[in-house]
């Protein structure tokens, strides 16, 4: 599995040797470079030494640090996709993982092929930053000075500054912007963003909306862009200009 000729590198952070080996083996069978880490310290050391990590598979119960805390520190400086892999399958744990910025949540015991499918799905919908100079976006949307580039899957702010989005955040914003003015229920948004697996619930949308508002709203507590229609869902309520190739 490659991206622009470069091999995809996935950090597998889990203190259980057997789980780590299974995950690394199934990734390697697809040509993915698996980087095994038995602790948070191992991952942080890897991150310091490595030029690039394309995705993190993260256990929540590590011997030296809580996985939620490690995920939060990763997300504070990077939009690298995070798939949480854990035996803690309660709804509150999943919501906390989403609030921190995880892109997917897989509960142990897990099917190795399903995990691989999720890794591929996340990678297909995630594009890393490239060169410092790039031509203007050919396809996408402009709203209140923001530009959503749907080819490169990037969002820039009114000053041209990049606004890092996780895979789930980008997909949800794209769905809302593309349907500007339409009220969309949580179920509709789950279906549009292809997040209708058995372990995804409608509360997922609420969490992602909160995350997006913190990133794009002038005042997240009094939303201007993404408004709540109580009892119905959400609507993107500002003018949107569609970009197209010239």
TrEMBL record:
It comes from Consotaella salsifontis. Coiled coil: none annotated. One of its GO terms (cellular component) is protein-DNA complex. It comes from the Bacteria. One of its GO terms (biological process) is regulation of DNA-templated transcription. It holds the Pfam family Response_reg. Residues 138-238 form the OmpR/PhoB-type domain. This is Regulatory protein VirG. The keyword Phosphoprotein applies.
